Amino acid sequence: MSPVLTRRLDTPSSNRRFLIICDHASNFVPPELDALGLPSGELERHIAYDIGALAVAEQISETLDCPLVASQFSRLLIDPNRGLDDPTLVMKLSDGSIIPANRTIDRFQDKAAWQARIDAYYRPYNEAIEAAIDDALNGGDVPIILSVHSFTPIWRGQKRPWQAAVLWDQDARVRDVMLDYMAAQADIHFGDNAPYSGRLKNDCLYRHGTQKGLPHALIELRQDLIGEAAGCKIWAAHMVEVMRRVAKADGSDEIRHFGSVND
Fold it and tell me: Is 21 helix (H, G, I), strand (E, B) or coil?
């Protein structure tokens, strides 16, 4: 099984103006790793992948006829939305669950196994994103990157009020359009850098968006709203409209280096 799902990257006519990525698209763990030692059912939880995110990302890509790059491995193997220096790159504990097979997988203990996961999963995913960006730039397009994630409706006993939220760092080109659009949707409680912050040093969008000066943002969607096809369709349609508006906004076709709060 390939560690990366790519769509429309080999189609010359596809719309390189947009690039959709999905860091936590899959809960796949190779059989030889025996579910990382986890009890039955743990890989179906949000700790293993972003529930519903891939379905939304695929619909956005299909409607915009633009490239999609999605992981085909569990975030518990290795998290492509982390920097190589991040201690949570290979999670040892996630939302109360200990990951037995990850106990020594880091650059200080079992470095060989840590490097093997980088080579087998992390690197191919990031290289696929790089290839999609290079293809767009070589064709004269500045790609607008949208990363699709999802979050749990309840965290540590507390209900999360947002239906969705935008995560961003210093480049507000996508964020501003998204907030304007969502402000007009009376039935949507939309968050700004919630329930997480988009200001994570060396995360996926820092590497591929911030450092390259490309317009980008991460959309977080609440998992109970995209657990079925109807909800995925609704939220994909919202994101398609946002992306089309971003493409018409001033400066969205330019490389601009806003930097990061972490620089």
Answer: strand
Q: According to CATH, what is the number of the domain 4-86+120-248?
A: 3.40.630.40
**3-state SS, residue 251:** coil
In this structure, which amino acid lies at residue 9?
Answer: L
Q: Where are the domains of the chain?
A: 4-86+120-248
How far the first Cα of the chain sits from its last, in Å, is 37
Confidence at residue 65, expressed as pLDDT on a 0 to 100 scale: 95
DSSP reduced 3-state for 138:
helix
Q: Are 16 and 139 in contact (CB under 8 A)?
A: yes
Q: How far apart are CA 126 and CA 148, in angstroms?
A: 15
**pLDDT tens for each residue of 30-74:** 999 999 999 989 999 999 999 999 999 999 999 999 999 999 999
Q: Residue 161: phi, psi to the nearest 5?
A: -80, -20
Residue 130 has pLDDT above 70, yes or no: yes
Q: 4-8, 117-121, 152-156: which range is least confident on average?
A: 152-156
**Long-range contact pairs involving 57-61 (C-beta distance under 8 Å, separation at least 24):** 57/20, 57/21, 57/22, 57/25, 57/148, 58/7, 59/232, 59/233, 59/236, 60/20, 60/146, 60/148, 60/236, 60/239, 60/240, 60/243, 61/7, 61/8, 61/20
Please give the pLDDT value at position 95. 82
241 by DSSP, 3-state: which? helix
| Band of residue 13 on the pLDDT scale cut at 50, 70, 90 | low
CA distance 164 to 240: 15
